[in-house]
Structures are given as C-alpha cells and as structure tokens.
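Task: sequence in, structure out. Protein: mitochondrial processing peptidase.
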Amino acid sequence: MASRRLALNLQTALRSKAAINAVKRSRQSPLTRGLATPVSHGSKTESTTLSNGFTIATEHSPWAQTSTVGVWIDAGSRAETDKTNGTAHFLEHLAFKGTQQRTQQQLELEIENMGGHLNAYTSRENTVYYAKSFNNDVPAAVDILSDILQNSKLEPQAIERERDVILREQEEVDKQLEEVVFDHLHATAFQGQPLGRTILGPKENIESIQRSDLENYIKTNYTADRMVLVGAGGVPHQQLVELAEKYFSKLPAEAPNYSGKIVAEQKQKPEFIGSEVRIRDDTMGSANIAIAVEGVSWNDEDYFTALVTQAIVGNWDRAMGNSNYLGSKLSSFVSQNNLANSFMSFSTSYSDTGLWGIYLVTPYVDRIDDLVHFTLREWSRLSSHVSNAEVERAKAQLKASLLLSLDGTTAVAEDIGRQIITTGRRLAPEEIERVVGAISEKDVMDFAKRKLWDRDVAVSAVGQLDGLLTYDRIRNDMSRMLS
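Result:
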C-alpha cells in the first residue's frame, strides 16, 4: 500500500477540463467472441465530466464477469509541505479504519461478503483507491469508495495506532536498498523542492502529524477537479456515470482559497540540480548506484522516444540464464568483464519533468570506476551510433511491456486512471503501437544529443563506494568522445 516504482508507468500530471473533455466517446465494437478468454482489444475508453468537474472514464467489456472501479486523485506527496510531508500516505492508511457510516469491521465485512478486493496506494503525484468485484456489486463498491474518501472518521486512536504501523513500514523500506537509493536520487536531483521529498515522510513528521493536517490535505486536494472515477470490465459507462452523480456530485469543484499557495507551489516546474549524495558503508557487500539526467514529462513529445532509448540500454541480471546473450550492448560488456551483478535502466516521468538513468549493483567494488565509465560511454554512443536492429529490438520490447501488461480489469483500470489523470486522455493500445512503431534510429540519436550528451547528472550511491570517483570525473564522462 505504499509507493510503487514502475519505470514504464503512465502516471500523473495536472490535467485541464478541456483536455478531459477532449477524450472522445465511442461505441463498443460488436461482441464477436463466444466462450473465450476476455480481452480488451477493440474496446474504447469513454469519458464524462460532471458539472463539478468530477470525471468518469471507463472501458466496458460486455463479456467480463468482474469489474475494477477506483478513484485516481491528482495529488500525492508532492502536494505536501515540508511540515506535512507524509500526510498523503498517512491518509491512505486511515481510509480503511472506519467512516461516519461504517466501522472498520463493517467495511471489512462488506468487502469480504461480496468476495471483493479493496486497496490503495500513494505515489509522489497520485493517490489511488480501488476495488475489484463482481459486476452486480459495483454499486456497493462505489458506495464504499465514496464513503472512505468523503467521510473517514480520522479518529485519534486510529491515528496513533497507524503512527506505529507506518514507522515499522519505514523501517522495512529502509532495508530495501533500491528504495533508499531512489529516494536519495529524488532528494538530490530536486533539492529543497516538493518532488524531492519521500512518500512516507521523515520520522519526525510521522510522529507529529495531527488530525488537522489530514483534514487540511483532504480539503486542499480531494476535490472534484482533481479526481477521476475509473471503471474497467463489465460495468457499463452510463451506470458508472449515474453512480458518480449519486455519490460524488457534492464534492467541491476546487480547493478553497486558503490552499491556493500550496497548489501554486506544486505546479511550479522543479529545477533539476546536477549533484550527488553518497552514503558509504564498507560493511555492505556491494555498491548500489543510480545515475540520472533530467528526463521527460508525461506530456513531452519525447516520452516514447525516451522509453525506446531506455530499452536500448536495457536491463540485465547475472541470475538470468541467458545473461550473456541479451541484445543490449551494455549487458554483453558488463557480463563478459564481470563489472556488476545487475543493472536496470529507467525513464520515470512526472507532470512536468522526469528522471532518465540507470541503477547499478556491483559486488566488484574495485571495478566501480570501469562500470560507471563504460555505462556513460554507452550513453555517449547513443548520440551518434545507433543501429536499426537495436532500435527495432527495443521497440518490440517496449510494445510488449506496455501492451501485454494490460492483463485483467485492474491493469486496464490502472492504465486508464494514470493516463486520464496525467494527460487528459487515454491513448488506445493501437495508438501506442503506432507511435512507438514510427520511432527511428535518427529519433533516438536526436533525443540522446539533446538529453544525454554533456548534460548534468544526479548521482545517488549507497554501500562500498571507495572506488566511485568524484562527481567531476563522472560528469566529464557525459561528453567523452568515442574513439
């Protein structure tokens, strides 16, 4: 129920009503399959906006027996202040602890009796509450979602109990080196800015957040203009619109005036800062290093080109049976020269910026210099020497990752929610395939020249780091000429 990091996630961005209304309505394709596995190919996303700005978006599959419905909120940890950092995640924990109409036991019993599933998660720019149920139980699921979003009790006893739960969760997160490295990467790349804060918040905030902080966060961010009710599966669009009218039409259209300053600060484009943070611990058995340049936002015209370029660099893990034979040039070089145990390239997008980079894990601490040097040398190569074969491979992998992941109503609902809340419309799978398919090696090299070549980097490293050279040496490798 805490943060999710997906390198290819289609998450977050402040949307305008005009963009929401631009989503075209279209009728369902006629049902041509009989007794077969439900798929969403050919289904269309429909969208309606209520008078208060609350949006409903659905993909109806008439053959599906279940549905996923959820509310995507355009607010996460980025919508907090230094003092209240951790509030969004705190609220997520309290959502299931009772409302004005239902006790915690009643909530759990209702979901259990319908055989449903209720969950939530928080990210830097989004908060999501969703339920999966049989089609007949969709009205009850929407009722529960609206209740926990609008009528949570936020009882003092529950707040105190959840403090301990979140502090234990923070201790577990601190043991996950990837989470630690990426949190520090955000903190150094976006220093002193909302996007640089963690999702759980610092320990002192978790211990001091009050009921008034939670109430103010709800008033500021849980408004109709920042929320989308999503349905995927057997629920028809019109039914969900009627349920939204019933349960969400009284939501305030926008935040009250006193919150204007916070909202304005959230909308300011963060400044990417070339910098580093190192946490040296020689008792650890490895070095864990993330290096990133400023990436692209969800709406950037380079969004899919960034993903294709990322896929060219690729991912690699020594535990994979075919590790010596992957298409990525970097994976072959790292494997043959025993430079690392694994690496993962990433392109993480936000509403107005992003991070594009790589996460390296190596026990060969005397070869860190070579690992970083040849990784950045590969980045430099992308500006001038990219073959058609590796671009086509990367495009095929990207399309598989984006399109084959739409398996089940929950995955489809998440795809709809992310795209509507971030860009104002949902790209159909066919559109994504067409856009990705049109990317050429020239597009990749042009992207690399503008975004990678001689650009400032943010570095986050934890572990045995004696072999990691100075920031200036790393930065100089961003413009090293190829021999």
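The longest helix spans residues 156-173.
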